[in-house]
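$ ./design --mode recover --in tokens.txt
reading tokens...
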């Protein structure tokens, strides 16, 4: 099957007026030569988006370990332009985390929508001061035995875990986690600049939702934000216009380079749902005016952002161009957890998971394995 688009966005270039060949769900190649028969897809074809930090969608939460919930999330993400994702846990008891990971392991191969490419453990090895919408009762110093258990329970899917670098034993934990194939992210932390840089030097390679839930940039103590700007570690960003001011997002992009920014959603169960009351872990959350906030205190509690809208926002805010925005939501997050060998790019030999956008970066369709699985009829 041949497809045509005005532009195909590849990992290192944009092809204009090309044809893409797909066979048995896999990209065969790209050519200027017009085939006898082809389907015109639209204005822009880009790799399917990769969300490496997402807790839930369509009323379902990974931590609930509910039968069938993973598939509901997976199918819902197609309307967000997401074709690959990491189901993400929250800080909770080991027993609840165990149960959530067992459920993912049982069901991930049978999801009908976006493909499960790993699991992100957001916690529980955080600092209480920057707990955010996570339960401090379950926070502790990192325990490598817990991580070993979680890798086993998840059928080996765990490939990313977040910790606070000032916790005792953090550097040793980072090295051991890396040796087990798990990428370590830094977040929910009051670490100093030096503590955060030492963690990166030990092997941590991601900053969790940069600016949010971490010690800020100060001219006498640059803190976690300063370390995010000063190191080569990839910085996650929630670009919904609520978590981070667009100008601050642009400053981070300019400081690091857009090839070190991973757009994520941190979406909770209310994503894709109407305004109202929801739960995030043990906490009651009010969703209104485009935000999810704790009913007790009003702090942001994850987001209801669709990743396709994060892509559109950074272009509309004039802090990235279309090519950069797509890479920040596909290739860069995939690279951050070492899954860019299976997703995050349109390339010969890769599964034909892609999205169709118009010139306003509105999602028109989502494809998995070369087949249309979502169409925006609006």
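writing sequence...
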């Amino acid at each position: 099957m041949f497809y045509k688009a005005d532009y195909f966005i590849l990992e290192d270039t944009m092809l204009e007026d090309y044809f893409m060949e797909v066979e048995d769900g896999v990209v065969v190649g790209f050519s200027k030569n017009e085939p006898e028969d082809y389907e015109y897809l639209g204005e822009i074809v880009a790799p399917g988006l990769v969300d490496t930090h997402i807790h839930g969608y369509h009323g379902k939460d990974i931590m609930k370990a509910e039968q069938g919930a993973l598939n509901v999330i997976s199918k819902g993400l197609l309307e967000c332009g997401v074709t690959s994702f990491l189901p993400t846990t929250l800080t909770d008891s080991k027993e609840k985390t165990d149960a959530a990971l067992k459920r993912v392991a049982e069901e991930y191969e049978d999801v009908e929508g976006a493909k499960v490419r790993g699991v992100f453990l957001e916690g529980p090895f955080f600092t209480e001061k920057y707990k955010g919408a996570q339960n401090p009762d379950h926070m502790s110093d990192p325990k490598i035995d817990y991580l070993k258990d979680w890798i086993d329970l998840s059928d080996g899917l765990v490939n990313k875990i977040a910790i606070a670098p000032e916790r005792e034993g953090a550097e040793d934990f980072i090295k051991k986690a890396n040796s087990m194939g798990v990428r370590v992210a830094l977040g929910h932390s009051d670490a100093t600049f030096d503590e955060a840089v030492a963690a990166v030097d030990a092997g941590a390679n991601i900053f969790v939702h940069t600016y949010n839930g971490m010690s800020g940039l100060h001219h006498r103590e640059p803190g976690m934000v300063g370390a995010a700007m000063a190191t080569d570690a990839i910085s996650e960003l929630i670009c919904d216009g609520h978590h981070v001011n667009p100008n601050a997002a642009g400053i981070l992009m300019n400081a690091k380079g857009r090839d070190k920014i991973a757009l994520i959603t941190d979406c909770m169960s209310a994503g894709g749902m109407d305004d109202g009351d929801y739960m995030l872990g043990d906490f009651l959350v009010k969703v209104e005016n485009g935000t999810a906030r704790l009913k007790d205190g009003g702090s942001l509690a994850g987001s209801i952002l669709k990743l396709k809208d994060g892509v559109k926002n950074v272009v509309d805010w004039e802090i990235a161009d279309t090519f950069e925005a797509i890479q920040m939501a596909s290739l860069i997050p995939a690279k951050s957890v070492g899954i860019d060998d299976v997703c995050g790019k349109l390339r010969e030999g890769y599964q034909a998971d892609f999205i169709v956008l118009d010139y306003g970066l509105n999602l028109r369709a989502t494809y998995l394995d070369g087949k249309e699985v979502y169409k925006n009829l609006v």
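exit 0
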